[in-house]
Design goal:
The protein is an alpha/beta fold. The chain has 3 domains: 2-87, Rossmann fold, CATH 3.40.50; 101-144, no CATH class; 145-474, pyruvate-formate lyase- activating enzyme, CATH 3.80.30.20. Helices cover 44% and strands 19% of the residues. The chain contains 17 helices and 18 strands. It has helices at 10-20, 68-87, 101-112, 114-124, 129-146, 177-204, 224-237, 258-266, 281-286, 293-306, 324-337, 354-357, 369-383, 414-421, 454-459, 461-477, 479-485, and strands at 2-5, 27-30, 41-46, 49-54, 57-62, 153-160, 162-163, 175-176, 208-216, 245-249, 271-273, 311-317, 341-346, 387-392, 403-407, 425-429, 434-438, 445-449. The strands form 4 sheets. A 9-stranded mixed sheet has the order 14-15-13-12-11-10-9-6-16, with helices on both faces. A hairpin with a 2-residue loop joins strand 4 and strand 5 (57-62). Helix 3 (101-112) crosses helix 5, helix 7 (224-237) packs parallel to helix 8 (258-266) and helix 11 (324-337) packs parallel to helix 13. The protein starts with a strand and ends with a helix. The relative contact order is 0.11.
């Protein structure tokens, strides 16, 4: 598919067309030639006029605005109207293509109140009533968590990029244990050194730890002894007295046993995530999960016996071969277990995943099954006592939908909110980790990237330590600014 444009809004134009044609190869060409290729999209913003044409449909409107963002929005609305008429499909999030709609909703609320924000979402951004109301409720809970952050607050992310096997939908930097087992011990040794070095820097910069998140990959791929070593390093290196939440992903039930759970709990982690994704055995087999639904239930019950008070469980709506009824059955069983929080993801078909590489494509019917699954989630989880506390979106999601974290009162995952809102600095350790340095009371964000793969991380470890020095440089430059706002 070709898009001809004569304006500067390349990114938004391409992303909007991709919502309607997610499986097409799209080429954006600057300039509109005299001879137009058949079925090409035309998008023009010129001399106070916006014009869009595609597949026999066209739309135009006049503008006298000089605000670039408003012009871009009007261009997107014009393009959206044409695409809806051609495809017969509306998008649940209207013309929004960004990752953080709740952040936008909050900004609108702060400027004009909640009613204004809801009206803007529905009438200016064409977001559905359903998603607008979900945004409003989620933002209320997010706001309470964000108020906990201080100018010198930070979160710690630690990456364990190993899994027992690679799921078909996975695009994360992780390696199966069969291929990378020999790397685990040297990786862990260096990771602990990076954690110690990062803690020294955080102390020098007078930063206050709010949350720790050990993810991956699957951290419980490590042995109980290795987990104990990792958590002991964290506890000895950082001032944990201000830490509000300590999460370890125990995502794969086939990596969980009593000794590992005991090591995690004794290491101070008060929140774990046991992730079934589905409780349908045939779907588990299709997506490459080498465990059964019963193993998930057994792992959950074992975690309770060991003493965990906050267990999160992840589900994915829209998995291959899963049906609406099967998904409902999974959610009903999860609600019977009664975890403190449930994160419901929508399948995202990332280009590097095995699903995509094997030729699978995104659904394009008017309402994909995943939409019905999420609608059931909202109804079931709300009536069972959960509320939405954070929400984000990704590219190439089934039905252009969303991921939502649901929690019982008092069990919102604060790291998830802080990292998604980009509230404060996140210091990342390990392969694939990214440190995000946030200037308080602004939108300014600097990033420091670690090497992606374990073997790169091991071979280039000294470079990882050198890069961390940028954290000190960042806070040295902010010293006067912070002294003023931290009074």
């Amino acid at each position: 598919m070709i898009i001809y444009i004569d304006h500067e809004f390349h990114y938004e134009t391409e992303n909007l067309v991709r919502l309607f044609y997610p499986n097409e190869k799209i080429t954006v060409i600057q300039g509109i030639p005299e001879i137009i290729e058949e079925n090409a999209v035309i998008s023009s913003v010129k001399d106070g006029e916006i014009y869009t044409a595609f597949s026999g449909e066209s739309e135009s409107c006049h503008f006298d605005d000089t605000d670039t963002k408003n012009i871009e929005r009007k261009m997107a609305v014009c393009l959206y109207d044409v695409l809806v008429r051609v495809t017969g499909r509306k998008q649940p999030w209207g013309i929004l293509t960004g990752v953080r709609p709740i952040k936008l909703f909050r900004r609108l609320s702060e400027n004009g109140g909640k009613s204004y924000a809801k009206d803007y979402f529905m009438n200016e951004l064409l977001v559905s009533d359903e998603k607008t109301n979900l945004s409003a409720v989620t933002e209320e809970y997010e706001r309470k968590i964000l108020a906990l952050s201080k100018p010198r607050s930070f979160g710690l992310y630690i990456s364990i990029p190993f899994c027992p096997s690679r799921c078909s939908y996975c695009s994360f930097v992780s390696q199966s244990i069969e291929k990378a087992k020999k790397l685990i011990e040297p990786y862990l040794e260096l990771l602990c050194k990076e954690i110690e070095h990062t803690a020294e820097i955080a102390k020098e910069c007078k930063l206050q730890l709010e949350s720790v998140y050990i993810g991956g990959g699957t951290p419980t791929t490590l042995s109980d002894v290795q987990l104990a070593k990792l958590l002991d390093t964290v506890n000895k290196s950082f001032d944990m007295t201000t830490c509000r939440e300590f999460t370890v992903e125990a995502g794969r039930p086939d990596t969980i046993d009593r000794d590992k759970l005991t090591a995690v709990l004794n290491g101070g982690a008060d929140r774990i995530s046991i992730n079934p994704q589905t409780l349908n055995d045939s779907v588990l087999e299709v997506i490459g999960r080498r465990h059964s639904a019963q193993q998930t239930i057994d792992a959950y019950k074992l975690a309770r016996k060991v003493g965990f008070k906050h267990i999160n469980m992840d589900l994915i709506a829209g998995l291959p071969t899963d049906t609406v009824e099967s998904f409902k059955d999974t959610l009903d069983k999860i609600c019977e277990l009664s975890p403190e929080s449930v994160t419901v993801h929508t399948l995202a078909m990332k280009r590097s995943s095995r699903l995509t590489q094997e030729g699978n494509s995104l659904e394009t019917e008017k309402e994909v099954p995943a939409a019905k699954m999420l609608r059931y989630c909202e109804s079931k989880l709300t009536e069972t006592g959960y509320h939405p506390y954070y929400l984000y979106r990704q590219t190439r999601m089934e039905g252009n939908l969303e991921n939502v974290g649901w929690a019982k009162d008092g069990f919102d995952g604060i790291y998830n909110v802080f990292v998604m809102d980009e509230t404060h600095t996140i210091l990342g350790c390990g392969a694939g980790a990214v440190s995000k340095l946030k200037k308080p009371c602004s939108e300014e964000l600097s990033r420091i990237f670690n090497y992606k793969y374990p073997y790169e991380y091991i071979n280039g470890f000294e470079e990882m330590l050198r890069r961390k020095e940028q954290v000190k440089e960042f806070y040295d430059e902010l010293a006067e600014y912070l002294s003023e706002i931290c009074v």
